[in-house]
Write a sequence for this structure.
């Protein structure tokens, strides 16, 4: 067992734990903080998979900007009445999740796997390579994404502004 | 040796946990956070495939997923604020009418 395997199992165990905390904790702020931890752990996995640029973006955009927005809305609304339990849906939710996880695990555990066969070179995953791919093959989606973000800004202002 | 399957199974498990959250929680903010969790599980799968197939396209797709997730979070939270002003409640089960 080398170091990368131990690191992978440690990070995955913590990731599953924090994800369960997001879903099962009663306090919304605790859920948000657990989600921040989960996003950081996913960023570590990105670094292990030679995607340093996306790991940095994950920390900056997800754990930074989006989660600050979530926490801001939680503080802003400050819901006082506690969340009622939804026992009726538990069977359905567990069934769906077990079906999904079971079928995927059965599909994946049939022996064939892709070991580390592709020796990635030094530049793989660098911002340079990502930018080259982004601005040559994916120019149109990139521009559409910028328009989408503009629409999201305008839409958020229109939806959340105080009514006259 | 960490293989592709390790990452795929981890992604599937995280996605399933997100599904549980979306279906069972009765707080719109937590439902939105579970959706973010599901998106991140898919991102992890994309990056794992990108690494093990030696192609950059998976990483570019994750870049776009992040942009769309940011837009989704912003619009979703704005809708939650607007709904909360009318209803004083965050329970999705109370939002069954198209018009109030």
């Amino acid at each position: 067992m080398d170091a990368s395997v131990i690191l992978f199992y440690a990070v995955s165990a913590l990731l599953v734990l924090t994800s369960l905390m997001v879903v099962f904790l009663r306090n919304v702020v605790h859920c948000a903080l657990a989600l921040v931890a989960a996003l950081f752990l996913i960023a570590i996995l990105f670094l292990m998979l030679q995607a340093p640029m996306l790991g940095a973006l994950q920390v900056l955009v997800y754990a930074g900007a989006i989660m600050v927005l979530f926490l801001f809305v939680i503080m802003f609304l400050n819901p006082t009445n506690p969340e009622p339990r939804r026992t009726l849906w538990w069977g359905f939710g567990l069934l769906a999740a077990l079906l999904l996880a079971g079928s995927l695990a059965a599909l994946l555990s049939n022996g064939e796997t892709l070991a580390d066969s592709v020796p990635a070179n030094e530049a793989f995953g660098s911002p340079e390579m990502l930018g080259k791919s982004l601005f040559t093959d994916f120019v149109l989606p990139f521009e559409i994404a910028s328009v989408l973000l503009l629409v999201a800004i305008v839409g958020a202002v229109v939806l959340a502004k105080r009514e006259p | 040796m960490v293989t592709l399957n390790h990452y795929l199974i981890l992604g599937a498990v995280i996605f399933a946990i997100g599904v549980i959250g979306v279906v069972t929680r009765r707080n719109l903010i937590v439902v939105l956070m579970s959706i973010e969790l599901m998106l991140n599980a898919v991102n992890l799968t994309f990056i794992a495939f990108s690494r093990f197939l030696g192609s950059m396209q998976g990483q570019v797709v994750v870049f776009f997923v992040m942009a769309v997730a940011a837009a989704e979070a912003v619009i979703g939270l704005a809708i939650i604020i607007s709904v909360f002003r009318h209803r004083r409640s965050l329970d999705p089960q109370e939002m069954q009418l198209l018009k109030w």
Q: What stands out?
A: Chain A touches chain B through 84 residues (CB under 8 Å). Chain A has a mean pLDDT of 84.
